[in-house]
Amino acid sequence: MSTPTSDVLIIGGGVAGLTLALEVADQRSVTLVRPAQDDQGASRWAQGGIAAVLSPDDDLEAHINDTLIAGDGLCDVEAVRFTVTHGPAAIQWLIDQGVPFTPETDPAARYPYHLTREGGHNARRIIHADDATGRAVVDTLLDSVAQHPNITQRNDLTVVGLLQDVHGTCHGAYGNDTNQQWHSLTARHTVLATGGASGLYRHTTTPAPSSGEGMMMAAELGARLMNLEFQQFHPTCLFDPEGPAFLISEAVRGEGGHLLNEAGERFMLALDKRAELAPRDVVARAIDAEIQRSSLGHVWLDIRHLGEKAIHHHFPTIQAHCASRGIDITQQAIPVVPAAHYSCGGVATNLQGATNVANLYAIGETACTGLHGANRMASNSLLECLVFARSCAQALLADAEQNGLTTSSSEFQPPTPAAAATFPKAVLSDIRQQMRTTMSQHVSIVRSTTGLSTALEHLKTLLNSVEEIQGALKAPEGKRLHQTLQLALLTVIAAQQRHESRGLHYSTDWPHQRPQAIASALSINDLTDALEKNR
């Protein structure tokens, strides 16, 4: 096991991880663990854009208020205000980095880049790069990262755990390379930017979503997890059971797209005065209800009335992708279904990304900052990545100045997992699919007490199955699946404990809200207690 040392170890290479790397690398050495499959992660597939107060016709208080409303009473007001007020500077940083945002063509406009509007926003404040904003941002930042002499990229490692000394301080991580060799990566500061947990579900909006492994790595060291029950389902994912996942951006509705039921009628008008621009939890539940009443298995998203020129101008990526799947969106409505999209819960952090474990930080979707509350508002996700990555960078630089940069590997013994025994990987794949089916059936858009209990028992059985496979927990695939099942169980426990319906958590047994909104908090001990019951 090799033990290279750097000042900052970043695990995950989406917008949050790349931004942090660039913000600290001028002064500190950085190791960025970014497996090749990260190219399929959520950041690259973000289409709509980034929300920020950029136009002179908009204001910070309006963005704050919209975010608080979408969060359904559970947002941390300080985190919301912090994020929104730092948003314009974060966008300017991206512009300075060279991100090719779509320019505004209207000479009367008061901001040089085109701004669109999405669900929950009462103003046009979404800056974007056509309909492929995530890809544009990631590609631009990756180019800068590749050229920076202080950033070492490790694309050959799968990180499966974190290193901790006898004092409880995090000192890095360990993982397995493509040759099945184990490595430890020690660092003064370790930052998780590993994404969310949409991969717990069968239908998702990205081809290779994270399944919360980073969250559980933090929990294994004692980090608190918050609000795991609030999993956002994007209302409009392309319905194609035979093809890969593909998101149909919120911006499609923002520019005037209509949702139609099986009879070809708009149904959102009767449910919410904001119609198709209602918050995502409202729209997703409405679509789910229509699907249950129909035989199609989906609803329609219609933008034909916008005209071919406008469709091609605003949505070239969506138009091209749908065409490759045999759908001409200028002539046909798009079949769509809700799909797991974003985890509002995660590793609890402060405004600098610090967890309750010394020297361990979390940023991006893997973190729970309090910004999103019970429901994330459209395009606040990339904003959170940028703002908290930049804030975390300042904290890391300040801490290094105050406490020095030495990292002593003599203080702890890194784990040395043995070589895994031979076992059929198809078995692990089958267990993962069973988990996703269980989560999609019982722990998704609409939940019930009976369904959650059924899910808990089934997930316990699957966890036991992994633990009983000889050598599974000493192989990367087995270890990560074990972490994923643990997070699925904690998600169910969090949902069981919330005796109300709020935001993304809707229970048929508890359809009303409690007067006081309370965030949920869980630890690895809660999972241990649940597993001990009924044994």
Fold and architecture overview:
This protein has 535 residues and is an alpha/beta fold. Among the domains are: 231-341, Succinate dehydrogenase/fumarate reductase flavoprotein, catalytic domain (Flavocytochrome C3, Chain A, domain 1, Alpha-Beta Complex); 425-532, Fumarate reductase/succinate dehydrogenase flavoprotein-like, C-terminal domain (Methane Monooxygenase Hydroxylase, Chain G, domain 1, Up-down Bundle), CATH 1.20.58. Helices cover 37% and strands 16% of the residues. The strands form four sheets. Strands 1, 2, 6, 7, 8, 9 and 16 form a seven-stranded mixed sheet that branches. A four-stranded mixed sheet has the order 17-15-10-18. β1 (5-11), α1 (15-24) and β2 form a beta-alpha-beta unit. The longest helix has 24 residues, at 380-403. Belongs to the FAD-dependent oxidoreductase 2 family. NadB subfamily. Its cofactor is FAD.
